Amino acid sequence: MKAETFLPDDYRPAEDEPFMNDRQLEYFRRKLSAWKTELLEQSQETLEGLAESARNVPDLADRASEETDRALELRTRDRQRKLVSKIDAALRRIDNGEYGYCEMTGEPISLKRLDARPIATMTLEARERHERRERVHRDD
């Protein structure tokens, strides 16, 4: 078990420190863990809300509206579930030393990009190339 890394509350990863040093890794681990906790709490609230709304509504318009709301909640819940699995994958990459490096090129992903999207697996350039290739193949 590794000793916990001290991290001041106002710490932000900086370009002038070694890439993916212990402090940066701890910063992203905490950021990802907090995001995951928030999503799981929202999911629990969604499930409780769906359980409460599973009542029989006699008015057809009200029932249709409730069904639409329910479908939207379920879609949101599914997106959150996928996001939680991406967060788990990012936490595993932190643990095995692969976090912060592009899965296509092996280059470091910018700290700005990781701060904005901590589940990123590619540099912005690699992501754009990947999306262009997908568009070309989709148009075939």
UniProtKB/TrEMBL annotation:
Molecular function terms from GO: zinc ion binding
PROSITE patterns reported in the protein's UniProt record: ZF_DKSA_1 (PS01102), ZF_DKSA_2 (PS51128)
Zinc finger boundaries on the chain: dksA C4-type: 102-126
Cellular compartments annotated: Cytoplasm
Domain DnaK suppressor protein DksA N-terminal: 24-94
Domain of life of the native organism: Bacteria
Residue ranges of every copy of the Zinc finger DksA/TraR C4-type domain listed in the record: 97-132
A single cellular component GO annotation: cytoplasm
GO terms classed as biological process: regulation of gene expression
Keywords in alphabetical order: Cytoplasm, Metal-binding, Zinc, Zinc-finger
Family affiliation: Belongs to the DksA family.
Role noted for this protein: Transcription factor that acts by binding directly to the RNA polymerase (RNAP). Required for negative regulation of rRNA expression and positive regulation of several amino acid biosynthesis promoters.
Self-association state and partner proteins as the record states: Interacts directly with the RNA polymerase.
NCBIfam families registered for this protein in UniProt: dksA
Protein's recorded name: RNA polymerase-binding transcription factor DksA
Organism (species): Rhodobacter maris
Lineage: Bacteria, Pseudomonadati, Pseudomonadota, Alphaproteobacteria, Rhodobacterales
